[in-house]
Amino acid sequence: MINQEMMRLGNHRSVIRDIFEYGNQRAKIVGRENIFDFSLGNPNVPAPEKVAQTIERIAKMDPISVHGYTSAQGSEVCRRAMADDLNRRFGTCYRPENFYMTCGAAASLSITLRALVSSAADEVIVFAPYFPEYKMWVESCAGAKCVVIPAQIEDFQIDFAMLEASLNENTKALIINSPNNPCGVIYSEETISRLAALLEQKSAQYGHPIYLISDEPYREIVFGGEKVNFIAPAYRNTIVCYSFSKSLSMPGERIGYILVPDSIENAADVYAAVCGAGRSLGYVCAPSMFQMIAAECVGTTSDISVYETNRRLLLEGLRSFGYTCVAPGGAFYLFPRSLEPDAGAFCEKAKKYDLLLVPGDGFGTPGHFRISYCVQTETIERALPLFKKLAEDYRR
Q: Which residues sit opposite 100 in a β-bridge?
């Protein structure tokens, strides 16, 4: 018999993908220009010109060196570039040996979880709202129990009372994501400091490290003078998972890394486990050409001014129509409250206006919906009157 759990996952796409495919079918009827698809976090800003120039130059190099295997953990040149970039920006002292190159953030997270989880009794904590695939990677990939801390919907910072009540001797790791998908909120310095202190205390109490997995694909996408705290120096048992999908606008190329700092307890063993997990999952040797590109383009960011404009238009417009929404400090998502308790029913009603929105239930936060605003600004401008009509429907 085949693996029933894998068959279940294959037969049930994520709600985000379902809505995206609905939009494709609906576009055949009403025209693509009349579909206001806010479902998928697919960057609409082109990659920086430096990326195109680097690709063009590398493509003319010796094809054996460009397209051949690198070391399983990634080329030393690429890993050194990752270390140099973080050291320059954050005053750290990382080395190439601290990095493992991956096929994007999904690989980074699934490898890290597989490396850390050693028993079905292990628990991994996630904070709502959370990226829906976290639960799958924790449970189906790593074989641990996923523990969800409910959202603090007033500001989407951490509910520390709930967190402290959930920590126990089986807690192996926590996953955080700042700026956050789906709400765009950045964890404050106070939140990070308080989290680090609590984890230090609980690690000592239980006699083993509680790892903090920091998922950081949106680290460079911040607005209005907001600051994203680089979390690894704040808590010594932090593992960073990064992807260039958003910062360089190339999600289809699948390139990222895992950072295992020397500060981690038994760091050499943790790094070896990361290498072993990458091997067991078939993730050795990230795409060699894009390792070269990442090495040369690290520190470069796509023009995020379009996202900032879209954020301002949507946030001001929706609030003026009566929607409640916490202001995002980064990423390219809004996470307003739905105009009825059932966010699924609300998003179905929005389809009347060809507004394709994602209910918050899959993100662990019922009563909310996600808008992915990495779209053309004209799309936002044309959609706002429809959001207003939708709100008016509820007032009637």
A: 258
- Whether the model clears a pTM of 0.85, i.e. scores above it, the answer is yes
Total Cβ atoms within 10 A of residue 335: 25
pLDDT > 90? residue 18 = no
Give residue for tokens 């697919």: 42
Residues 6+ apart with CB under 8 A from 157: 185, 187, 188, 191
pLDDT, tens digit (0-9, with 9 covering 90-100), for 158-173: 999 999 999 999 999 9
List the domain boundaries for the chain. Answer: 4-48+303-395, 68-297
Alpha-carbon gap, residue 102 to 140, rounded angstroms: 20
Residues in Cβ contact with 31 at an 8 Å cutoff, skipping those fewer than 6 apart: none
The set of residues, in sequence order, having a beta carbon less than 8 Å from that of 134 and lying 6+ positions away, is 109, 126, 146, 175
Options 3.90.170.10, 3.30.465.10, 3.90.1150.10, 3.40.50.300; CATH of 4-48+303-395: 3.90.1150.10
Taking CB atoms within 8 Å and a gap of at least 24, the contacts of 154-159 are 154/326, 155/185, 155/326, 156/129, 156/180, 156/183, 156/185, 156/326, 156/335, 157/185, 157/187, 157/188, 157/191, 158/127, 158/187, 158/191, 158/194, 158/195
If DSSP codes are grouped into helix, strand and coil, which group holds residue 292?
A: helix
What's the DSSP call for residue 282?
T
What tens digit of pLDDT does each residue of 43-94 get? Answer: 999 999 999 999 999 999 999 999 999 999 999 999 999 999 999 999 999 9
Task: In whole angstroms, give the CA distance from residue 354 to residue 348.
Answer: 10
Q: Respond yes or no on whether the N-terminal peptide bond of residue 385 is cis (omega within 30° of 0).
A: no
CA 123, CA 145: separation in Å to the nearest integer? 5
The residue ranges of DSSP E strands in 286-368, in sequence order, are 333-334, 355-356, 358-359
Residue 141 near residue 113, CB atoms below 8 Å: yes
Same fold, 4-48+303-395 and 68-297: no
What gap in Å lies between CA 207 and CA 388, rounded to an integer? 55
What's the CATH class of domain 68-297?
Answer: alpha beta
Residues 335 and 370: beta-carbon distance below 8 Å: yes
